[in-house]
Amino acid sequence: MQNGSQEQKSNRDTQSSRRSVLKGSLVAIGMGGSLSGVAAGKGGKGKKGGGNGGETGYAGAGPYDPAGEGECSDGYKSQVFSLWAGQDNDAGTVTLSSDKDNIYVTYDTNESADLKEVHVDIYSTADAVPDKRPAPGQADYKAENLYSDAYTVTVPFADLGETVECGDDYYVIAHTALASDDGRDNDEDADSDLSNDGETAYAGGSKSALEDGKGAWFYVAEYTIVCCLHDIKGSVYTDTDSSGSFDEDESGWGGITVTLEDDAGNVVATTTTNTDGTYTFGDIPGGEDYSVVVATPDDYVGTQNSGGYEITDLDADLTGVDFGYTEQADTDFTYNVEADYKQETGNIKFESTSEPALGEDGRSETDTFTFTAGSEDSELTVETKNQDTVSEMITPGETVTMSNGFDVTWDSITGNNDGTYTYEFTVTSDADNTTGALSYVAFDTDAPEGSISA
């Protein structure tokens, strides 16, 4: 693999308007890996049948297509061009993409032949594109002896004397020389018709050559930097009526930290709300998944998006990503005790008689439940009830998450030196106001009948 260099540059004439890659690096990731570049081959007479091996022709003599839209990644949209062998044989695609630092030229053949060599030149204006086909071997970016189905060339904007700007156009001569792999790798083109074996190929989205129709053919791919950058906006507010929506008579909350995370939980950006509670994350790359997160302030409970706001495949500006909080009241919860409530030996139920109950209106709250029994259990069944009744097995020191929105922790079991044991549990409600409050919590023990008290 070879890189373009200053020495190569000095050995050939260049146009002053050309933005050449002088220090460019070429990234090759093995057979079938990711590559950047253009492959070029020698001119010659065409051959009958499936291809135009080594054919010399004129720009535009064969079909060419406008760029097809690719996908947004790292904030920029890729463009896909056909890779034409011998002017009009389909040999695969070349995808041009970018991030804030580089342009990537990615070849992907259709198994009619391998990439033997790739050569890439890039120009920042249409006028800088040469009239005659550049000699492939003098390309600023090149790689040889590849024999691979795919390859990506990396061209830094810094080496072009450029910085990435939305809407900028670049003109890419992406050439490759195609060949049979001759057993060098194990891909499927070894068994295909190899119709493009020995061909020279260019990525074509536009065309360029001598106006009088003389000279070797070549195509030029016109690549426009299309930015996929979006804003995410919202507010943090005091939800005085616990309605879960930002009403006109409610106030925004300034000075609150808002965090944007990627789908792996890594922090992408942080910001602080303005005095009116508003915040903005600007120029966020599209095509990715994100979460907007706000830590619940002390002595408050969340009423809107308290668990975070999930964004899947960001593809537009977002507004109204709001977070509501209401002050947590100091509430004493009252639960009456009923033993043998199931008419079964050794069961005890704590049933709410207070309003609100634990977890009312989406509050995340904790209460402690203690009872004494005449046996020492190593496990028992706990049951919680709101809209749904859920039972789980629990052991000492364990916390179980009930599917109806409660965490139950078996805090301790202590012997009382009189043949009885004291059990202590805590129950914590989630901050989701749709799951409802704790109607009752019950424990199924092995204690003898009549031996339970609370």
From TrEMBL:
Ranked from the top, the taxonomy reads: Archaea, Methanobacteriati, Methanobacteriota, Stenosarchaea group, Halobacteria
Compartment(s) of residence = Secreted
Q: Is-annotated flag, keyword Secreted?
A: yes
One annotated Gene Ontology cellular component of this protein:
extracellular region
Q: Tell me the Pfam families matching this sequence.
A: SdrD_B
| Sorted UniProt keywords | Secreted, Signal
Residue stretches making up the SD-repeat containing protein B domain? 235-319
Q: Does the keyword Signal feature in the UniProt annotation?
A: yes
- Report the protein name in the record: Cna protein B-type domain-containing protein
Extract the ranges annotated as region (Disordered): 1-62, 181-209
Segments of skewed composition (Gly residues):
30-60
Biased region (Acidic residues) positions are: 184-196
Gene3D superfamilies registered for this protein in UniProt: Immunoglobulins
Alphabetized InterPro entries for the sequence:
Ig-like_fold, Sdr_B
